Amino acid sequence: MAGVSAVRVLVVDDDPLVRAGLTLMLKGADELVVVGGVADGAEVGAAVDAYAPEVVLMDIRMPGLNGIDATRLLRRRPDPPHVIMLTTFDADEHVFGALRAGASGFLLKDTPPEGIVDAVLRVAAGEPILSPGVTRRLIAHLAPEAEDRRRDDGRRLLSRLSDREREVAAAVGRGASNADIAAELHMSVGTVKSYISRILAKTNLDNRVQLALIAHDNPL
């Protein structure tokens, strides 16, 4: 049974089998509690009002209001929940739209249960996720003609960073957690969080996921 401090999760997917599967899987983790599930992005606002989830697992493609637009609406709220996008990568052109909308990370729908649980817990703790595997697949599916421009933009942003900030950014690009970065660079987790906040401010990026993509694309 979930404890009193369990992370509250809302599942959003138009496929009832996917919704049921995710709900059943998440209910097996003591650290999580599934507070509800809805089939369309248009239902998310009311569900958030009703259930106050801390994390929303959101499908990107839905027949009504899609996950990107639903995420954008959520992120305009005061104290919004974190959003993890669910994707099968059959619509890669939407991924960066989701990043711009404020998504905290991405999960493939075939991610093992323990990976989904870990991602939800990390995002709830304020640590957006983008695994190295997902990063590689994102980069591989981007339009080749945009690659040079993307790298130039990334190099320009990263040139604003100090040497230590670049070390932190490189670790983020490898998909390292805050705890991993702290151990690698011999600093506290709080210091890592401060560095990441400073890096995001210097580069005008919205979140850690965008930083991970730029750092991955421009090895430091």
UniProtKB/TrEMBL annotation:
GO terms for biological process: phosphorelay signal transduction system; regulation of DNA-templated transcription. PANTHER family: TRANSCRIPTIONAL REGULATORY PROTEIN NARL-RELATED, TWO-COMPONENT RESPONSE REGULATOR. Residues 154-219 form the HTH luxR-type domain. Residues 8-124 form the Response regulatory domain. Keywords: DNA-binding, Phosphoprotein, Transcription, Transcription regulation. SMART domains: HTH_LUXR (SM00421), REC (SM00448). Pfam families: GerE, Response_reg. Gene3D superfamilies: 3.40.50.2300. The lineage of its organism: Bacteria, Bacillati, Actinomycetota, Actinomycetes, Streptosporangiales. It comes from Microbispora hainanensis. InterPro entries: CheY-like_superfamily, NreC/VraR/RcsB-like_REC, Sig_transdc_resp-reg_C-effctor, Sig_transdc_resp-reg_receiver, Tscrpt_reg_LuxR_C, WalR-like. The modification 4-aspartylphosphate is found at D59. One of its GO terms (molecular function) is DNA binding. This is Response regulator transcription factor. It comes from the Bacteria.
